[in-house]
Amino acid sequence: MIGGGMKLQNIFKNQKGSDIFNLLIIIVVIFLLRAYIVQVTYNLMWPKIVSNTGGDPSQFTPITFYESLMIVFLFSFLFR
Q: Is 58:17 a contact under the CB 8 Å cutoff?
C-alpha cells in the first residue's frame, strides 16, 4: 500500500492512548480470526487430501488453535 505508513503515523500522533489500544485490539482479533480460519480449513481439508493420496485417515490428528496461530504468524511475517 502506497502511503500506508503516513496514515499510521498520523493516527499515532493525533490520537490518545485509548484509540491506540483499540487499534491493538483490532489487530489481535484479526490474527485470531486468521488462525481460526487456518485451523478449520486444515482440519476439514487435510483428511480428504490424505484419503485421496492413499494415506490412512485414521492416523489424522487435527492441529490445535495455537499451532494454527503460529502458522498464521509465520506466513504473515514471511509474505508481508
A: no
pTM given for the model: 0.57
Q: Are 18 and 47 in contact (CB under 8 A)?
A: no
How far apart are alpha carbons 77 and 58 in whole angstroms?
33
Chain centre to alpha carbon of residue 10 = 26
The label of the residue with cell 492413499 reads 54
- The 8-class DSSP code of residue 56 comes to -
Residues 35 and 52: their CA atoms lie apart, in Å, by 25
What is the number of residues in the chain? 80
Closest CA to 53 of 45, 61, 62: 45
- pLDDT tens figures, 58-73: 767 788 888 888 788 7
